[in-house]
Specification:
Strand order of the largest sheet: 4-3-2-10-1-9
Distance between the termini: 87 Å
Number of helices: 11
Order of helices and strands: HEHEHEEEEEHEEHHEHEHHEHH
Strand content: 5-15%
Number of strands: 12
Length: about 375
């Protein structure tokens, strides 16, 4: 896909590592002691973390931990879907632990949109179920981090432009130790989650479309960085796409009318290169995704239609000239039939009068169907 190709060719820049830090716990999801979550919060805040985001609700955490999280207003929690519900019922978020109920906690749903043709490119702000609208964890965390509404569409493209293959990531054991430095955490959103089993293939994305994709935690980190960096990919709407196609088609119609087919083919290649370069610059520098494929198809289609019409007109002209030339040659080579000549009876009368020296001649024509 052209979008993935553009992502791969974008100049590399440090983008995600400046805003998001990942902390991974062991994949067996064996939680540490209840007080370790409080210790982790204190350590991260002392190192200058701007925000702490848990992709889960720690079930073994104390009431005091959740009360402290609610009072800080910079801690956000993720909720999974309740898998214990019957299959034929609407999805509902998992219940909040007993020790966290009744508290004003910032929470969001751990929900990943379905892939497009096997590649994960999009995330979303809200999910709807049973007539209710829930913010996703990524959107809830970004809104808390920025302390203002996030300006993006409901379904937005994750910005993979120029970022490295991996976000900044450390283990939970290292985070609980004293090996972290302030530069690693200061001013960042720290996303805490569980590592996935290595036997499970990751999520394929434009930067790693193969079997070794990113984990769910890494994808959420990239989506979160897209929103808090305020560098979402702007996907042009249908009206802008239609205007672009109209302008490209109009230019093509005017230019191809003035040029020959051979020169038009050369101009088509140059024009497509210019259009693709402009689209690539808009995508790389301004994060604007334009209808590249549609523009290429429109340009080639206009060239094909104009060339075909010109060919038809030229063939009609050649056929007309050949027919006229054939008729002229035929009139010179093949004698004209006497009956088809003009005023042939007048010529017959003159011939007989001059040959027989007649003063008067009468020609009788039989009545049709009389005999």
């Amino acid at each position: 896909m052209l979008y993935d190709l553009f992502v791969h060719t974008t100049p590399e820049r440090k983008l995600a590592s400046q805003k998001v830090l990942l902390i991974e716990a062991s994949p067996d999801k064996s939680p540490p002691e209840s007080n370790k979550w409080s210790v982790l919060n204190q350590r991260l805040q002392s190192l200058g973390a701007k925000q702490i985001v848990y992709t889960f609700l720690p079930e073994n955490a104390s009431r005091k931990f959740f009360e402290h999280a609610g009072s800080m207003q910079n801690i956000c929690f993720g909720r999974d879907w309740d898998v214990k519900k019957p299959v034929n019922t609407e999805l509902q978020p998992e219940p909040v632990p007993e020790q966290a109920r009744g508290l004003d906690l910032q929470m969001g749903i751990n929900s990943i949109p379905k892939p497009d043709y096997g590649i994960y490119r999009y995330h979303q702000k809200y999910v709807r179920t049973n007539g209710e609208k829930f913010p996703t964890l990524v959107y809830a965390a970004a809104r808390q981090f920025l302390d203002k509404p996030v300006s993006s569409k409901q379904r937005f493209l994750v910005n993979f432009n120029g970022i490295s293959r991996d976000l900044g990531k450390i283990s939970l054991q290292r985070a609980l130790s004293r090996q972290m430095i302030p530069e690693l955490v200061q001013g960042k959103s720290v996303l805490i989650g569980f590592a996935e089993d290595k036997s499970i293939s990751g999520m394929p994305t434009p930067i790693n479309p193969g079997s070794h994709g990113v984990s769910t935690l890494e994808f959420q980190g990239m989506a979160l960085d897209t929103l808090i960096s305020e560098k979402s990919i702007y996907n042009t709407g249908p009206w802008i796409n239609l205007a672009c196609l109209f302008v490209v088609s109009l230019i093509g119609v005017i230019v191809y009318q003035l040029l020959g087919t051979s020169l038009g083919l050369w101009i088509t290649g140059v024009t497509l290169a210019v259009y693709i370069t402009i689209c690539w610059l808009l995508f790389s520098l301004l994060f604007i995704w334009t209808p590249v494929f549609e523009i290429v198809v429109a340009q080639c289609l206009v060239f094909g239609v104009i060339s075909k019409r010109r060919q038809i007109v030229e063939m009609d002209t050649i056929q007309t000239v050949l027919n006229r030339l054939s008729n002229r040659i035929k009139s010179y080579i093949i004698p004209e039939d006497f009956i088809s000549t003009k005023r042939h009876w007048h010529n017959i009368v003159n011939l007989l009068a001059q040959t027989l020296n007649l003063d008067r001649s009468i020609f009788l024509e039989p009545v049709e169907h009389d005999h």
